[in-house]
Amino acid sequence: MKAFSISFLMVVFITTALFSQSKHAKTSNYLSYKGLVMAGYQGWFRAPNDGSKRGWGHYGRGNKFDFENNTIDFWPDVSEYKKTYKTVFKYDDETNAEVFSSVDKSTTDLHFKWMKEYGVDGVFMQRFFGVTRNHTNTNKPQDIILRNALKASKENNRAIAVMYDLSGLKETGEDCSSIIEDWKMLVDELKVTNQGENQNYLYHNGKPLVAIWGVGFPDRPYDTRKIGINRLIDFLKNDPVYGGCSIMLGVPTYFRDLDKDCLPDPYLHTVIASADIVLPWMVQRFTPLVHKVGDHLRDHIIADLKWTKKRNLDYVPVITPGFSWRNLSLNKPHLARYTAYGAIPRLGGRFYWDQMANAILAGSEMIYVAMFDEIDEGTAIMKVSDTPPNSDKAHFVNNDGMPSDHYLWLTGLGAKMLRGEMPLQLELPERKVNNRK
Known about the structure:
The protein is α/β, with parallel strands linked by helices and 437 residues long. Helices cover 30% and strands 13% of the residues. It is built from twelve helices and twelve strands. The chain has helices at 2-19, 105-118, 129-132, 141-155, 177-190, 229-238, 267-273, 293-310, 326-329, 333-336, 350-361, 406-418; strands at residues 37-41, 85-90, 96-99, 122-128, 159-165, 203-204, 207-213, 246-252, 277-281, 314-315, 318-319, 367-369. Strands 1, 4, 5, 6, 7, 8, 9, 10, 11 and 12 form a ten-stranded mixed β-sheet that branches. Strands 2-3 form a two-stranded antiparallel ribbon.
């Protein structure tokens, strides 16, 4: 009996010692996603002379940004940016329209200042698979932007987390191993989960939250069964040094029934079972042109919540202001035939508010907004112009006559409504329209 006790104590001691190796902070100002409205943050816009050497990244094709190579549908309101870049597009008074670069620290600082000002709780910093292939270089533009965001999150007391997007993973010869190495680098070098006193990395169930997006979609070249997604999740959850994390998994809207936008492979349910939060991607799945969005979305979320609760999983729906990628699709005939400017219209915020209010009414405890800054697909909630530089050579979508900060304002109200700080309101809040940008 004595020998057994000694052996048992040794096991406990060894196990405790292993897990005490964790490089994550024991706590955070944000210990749970519940009660928060978070947005996705692409941070992928580049401009000549911003130091990235990427030309007009994500503003145009082939790193060019002109009348023939324009890929954004909304124009940012840059009136508050410290650093901007002139373009060939002009306003009626012949002045050149300007844009921002995500690489500039002043851009990140301004975006997080807006989050604090309007009550957006924080963001998931998108990290695409291609970035993880070069994890030994810690000064990539994406790393610079993430460093800036970590500092800005502390200065503005906003939650921040990392989301790995599997887009870019090749059909053969690649698995998720490089994400493991990239996460080690982020923890060791950028110290994403250990920012010192008053750190704001988002935890869930008391553990750092890591999101993985892109599992179960039929338009992906990779086979989910062959990319080692199970090994990645096991590492993030159980590694004694870099693990101990909660996992949010980005999956198709119709993950429950494995149909429509989802691969009919039950392995997805196996992977979901190993996660902590299910994030169904709902962008382009609902439109006010066809659906009575509030009722349709509410019923869908209620069914999702029933399914996830039965399996002891948390759930976060995705909402978006609208969708428009006409300019982006013009060099892709198979897409251009089926899209128009403002294809899923914003309707002055009614579409967005219908989703926000009904997601909360359905019982959602947390919300994911797609996206903070994605003007190329027309989903951005950041400040956009109602008077873009339209001409006979270029067209951009306006903001329906609303102030440039309209969707930041609505997002902040939604966060209050989610937490019960204001009554649930199905009608779009009224706002005096002035100061158009």
